[in-house]
Specification:
39% of the residues lie in helices and 18% in strands. The chain is an alpha/beta fold and 411 residues long. It has two domains: 8-57 and 303-410, Aspartate Aminotransferase, domain 1; 72-300, Type I PLP-dependent aspartate aminotransferase-like (Major domain) (Aspartate Aminotransferase, domain 2, 3-Layer(aba) Sandwich), CATH 3.40.640. A seven-stranded mixed beta sheet has the order 4-12-11-10-7-5-6, sandwiched between helices. Helix 12 (352-361) packs across helix 13 (384-410). The chain is globular. Keywords: Amino-acid biosynthesis, Aminotransferase, Arginine biosynthesis, Cytoplasm, Pyridoxal phosphate, Transferase.
């Protein structure tokens, strides 16, 4: 029996204030619908920030959760377990990788990747080769190392000196990258499409230039696919559509469909620089998370599902084009598959959150990617009926915001 009555106000009373959650409290989800504590339903265009790729409470995942939950949850990394070995083999069969390290989040996967890259460079080339190249507006996690490598200074401010040897370059700027990557560079870390930074796709020529520069200077190329991976762009990993293969790939978010799990994937030769005891995790690769992720990977890697992602992405783009024709809201719509960003025009600059709030009031859950970009990252298998209903509700929300702006201007 639960002795505590809670509501949205409880958050402000008991939680550390690093989040500002919506005014409603989700209580139940099924597919692409969510119901709050008042019983009101919402069409979910957020996917838990590109996490619930198979929707809420997918029956196959619920079945695996129950079966593994009655078998073995945790055993520690003093032992291995069958689910994590099956997951590693499945991921390696689908990618360039032949070694995997499992963690609990994208930040932890990136932390492992950056540590490994520095260790490889130092052992192969010497202690001076420690510089990391990253890109402005990038996001790689919230640990102190990853937030320092990320290209949004606001997340690193107020915590003291950041680690040395990190340089941030303009995204998609080939000449800047060629000039910066040199003999002391140990790694370049890049999102093949920036998510938090505004849903900005990487130019294939830019990504190829990074690969070439890394090869020329003995540096490792790390692709952060925490947000773009596991089917989000219509390819199992986004690198598969670029003509570029990284040395290390990080993945999380959709990998567990909401169960916390992340992974770093790499080659045998690179992985060999991590010896027993130099890095680790207590929960990473636990059998419960690994079993769920293994089923996610099995389902999402189906070519028919990935083709459906591309088709749904085109449907969303078409609906956004219709909205833009009516309201003249968007300066640009960009992205791939079901990671789409709609950048607002100057008339609505800085007001992305207003549209998110209005959408919630009309029964649709929506994301931002910075103050000027509306972000869509729904379930990869969102039914067409839910897409249609979600956009019907979103249209009403836009009417409310645009109408309020017109009234204010008239006054």
């Amino acid at each position: 029996m639960n002795d505590f009555a809670v509501n949205r106000q409880t958050f402000d009373e008991v939680m550390v204030p690093v989040f500002s959650p919506a005014s409603f409290v989700p209580a139940r989800g099924e597919g692409s619908r969510v119901w709050d504590t008042e019983g009101r339903d919402y069409v979910d265009f957020t996917g838990g920030i590109a996490v619930t790729g198979l929707g809420h409470c997918h029956p196959e995942l619920v079945r695996v959760l129950r079966e593994q939950g009655e078998t073995l949850w945790h055993i520690s990394n003093a032992y291995t377990n069958e689910p994590v070995l099956r997951l590693a083999k499945r991921l390696e069969s689908l990618t360039f990788a032949d070694r995997a390290f499992f963690a609990n989040s994208g930040a932890e996967a990136n932390e492992a990747a950056l540590k490994l890259a520095r260790r490889v460079a130092i052992e192969r080339h010497g202690p001076e080769k420690i510089e990391i190249v990253s890109f402005k507006q990038s996001f790689h996690g919230r640990t102190f190392f990853t937030v320092s490598v990320g290209g949004q200074p606001k997340y690193a401010e107020g915590f003291g000196p950041v680690p040395a040897g990190i340089e941030h370059l303009p995204y998609n700027d080939i000449e800047a990258a060629r000039a910066a990557i040199g003999p002391k560079t140990c790694a370049v870390i890049v999102e093949p499409m920036q998510g938090e930074g505004g849903v900005v796709p990487g130019d294939p020529a830019f990504l190829r230039a990074l690969r070439e520069a890394c090869d020329a200077h003995g540096a490792l190329l790390i692709f952060d696919e925490v947000q773009t991976g596991v089917g989000r762009t219509g390819f199992f990993y986004a690198y598969m559509d670029t003509g570029v293969t990284p040395d290390i790939l990080t993945t999380a978010k959709s990998l567990g469909n909401g169960f916390p799990i992340g992974a770093m994937l790499t080659t045998k030769d690179i992985a060999a620089h991590f010896k027993v005891g130099v890095h680790g995790t207590t929960y990473g690769g636990n059998p419960l998370g690994a079993a769920i992720a293994d089923k996610v990977v099995e389902l999402v890697s189906d070519p028919a599902l990935l083709e459906g992602v591309k088709q749904r992405g085109e449907q969303i783009r078409a609906k956004l084009a219709e909205l833009n024709q009516r309201f003249n809201l968007f300066k640009e719509v960009r992205g791939k598959g079901l990671l789409i960003g709609a950048e607002l025009t100057a008339a609505y600059e800085g007001r992305a959150k207003d549209f998110v709030n209005a959408a919630a009031a009309h029964g649709a859950m929506l994301l931002i990617a910075g103050p000027n970009v509306l972000r869509f990252a729904p379930s990869l298998v969102i039914p067409e009926a839910d897409l249609d209903e979600g956009f019907t509700r979103l249209t009403k929300a836009i009417e409310a915001v645009v109408g309020a702006a017109a009234d204010a201007q008239a006054r």
